């Protein structure tokens, strides 16, 4: 499935330049695992501690690893960006709703809503860029390992965000904590969606590896999750919010592309199973 370049091209942006890593001839004596594993372990530590921005910085570098580290880094970047875009969008909507409930402090609510929309916009567009490059990141793999432990967080909604929705503002410290909680929660929910974990329970302990749930997920499942997030986030650019028709169409185009790619893969798998079944019947019918 090819991108609809005539529609997307008008709003395309330059690709982010990846961090260049210096290379020397002596590196050839080391395997990829030897040279990149320490950085991967550092990235994992940051993720476990809930340092989401630090994790993103590390996976950006790991995209250059050129081996399984790069594949896993791309997957984690997609999942984290998906969670961040969802979390910020949820926060922006909560403050917008709160502004309608508390007219006395409408300016404070609207400022917060605008801030979170801007952050959701950045995360959504970064995710869209990743989605446009899925063939480069995952074209040679069928399954993707997700071996990070889960980040700290819960799938339960924030009580502070619930208060914001009804027009109540609390101390700034609590609001900041609620923001961090909401982003982590959105990431946990997105990862659970990708691994098909139960989404109505507290997240596993930070030390619990995702491999216990699913050693590797099918690539179409990851693409389907990202496609769904892009579909959701397109509303961010609707007329009633950021009012950017170009970005609205772009996210829907990419969402459709990922959906069709996932469906095509499933059809191929189904066709393969049906062929296998037919061959089994033919062999059983032989004398």
Low-confidence stretches: 1-33, 198-207
First and last CA, distance: 44 Å
Main beta sheet strand tally, sense and closure: 2 strands, antiparallel
Average pLDDT for all residues: 80
Cα shape: globular
Strand arrangement, major sheet:
1-2
- Specify the helix fraction band: 55-70%
Rg estimate, integer Å: 21 Å
Order of SSEs, N→C? HHHHHHEHHEHH
Structural class: mainly alpha
Number of β-strand runs: 2
Measured by DSSP, the beta-strand proportion falls in under 5%
Instruction: Count every helix, treating DSSP H or I runs of 4 or more residues as helices.
Output: 10
* Domain tally: 1
Write the layout of secondary structure elements.
Layout: H1 5-8, H2 32-48, H3 52-62, H4 68-101, H5 106-132, H6 134-138, E1 143-145, H7 159-165, H8 172-195, E2 216-218, H9 219-233, H10 245-285
Antiparallel strand pairs: 1-2
Helix pairs in contact: 2-3, 3-4, 4-5, 4-7, 4-8, 4-9, 5-9, 5-10, 9-10
């Amino acid at each position: 499935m090819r991108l609809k370049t005539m529609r997307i091209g008008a709003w395309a942006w330059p690709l982010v330049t990846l961090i260049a890593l210096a290379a020397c001839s002596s590196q050839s004596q080391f395997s990829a695992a030897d040279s990149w594993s320490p950085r991967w372990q550092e990235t994992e530590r940051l993720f476990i501690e809930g340092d989401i921005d630090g994790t993103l910085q590390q996976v950006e570098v790991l995209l250059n690893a050129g081996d399984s580290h790069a594949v896993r880094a791309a997957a984690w970047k997609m999942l984290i960006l998906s969670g961040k875009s969802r979390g910020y969008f949820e926060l922006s909507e909560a403050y917008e709703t709160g502004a309608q409930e508390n007219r006395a402090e409408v300016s404070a609510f609207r400022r917060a809503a605008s801030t979170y929309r801007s952050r959701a916009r950045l995360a959504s567009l970064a995710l869209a860029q990743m989605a446009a490059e899925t063939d480069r990141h995952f074209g040679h793999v069928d399954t993707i390992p997700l071996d990070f432990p889960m980040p700290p967080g819960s799938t339960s909604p924030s009580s502070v965000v619930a208060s914001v929705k009804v027009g109540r503002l609390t101390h700034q410290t609590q609001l900041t904590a609620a923001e961090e909680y909401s982003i982590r929660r959105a990431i946990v929910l997105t990862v659970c969606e990708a691994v098909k974990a139960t989404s109505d329970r507290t997240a596993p302990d930070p030390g619990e590896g995702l491999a216990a749930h699913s050693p590797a997920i099918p690539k179409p499942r990851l693409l389907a999750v990202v496609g769904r997030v892009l579909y959701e986030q397109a509303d961010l650019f609707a007329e009633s919010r950021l009012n950017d028709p170009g970005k609205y169409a772009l996210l829907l185009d990419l969402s459709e592309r990922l959906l069709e790619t996932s469906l095509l893969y499933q059809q191929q798998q189904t066709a393969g199973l049906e062929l296998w079944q037919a061959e089994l019947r033919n062999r059983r019918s032989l004398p």
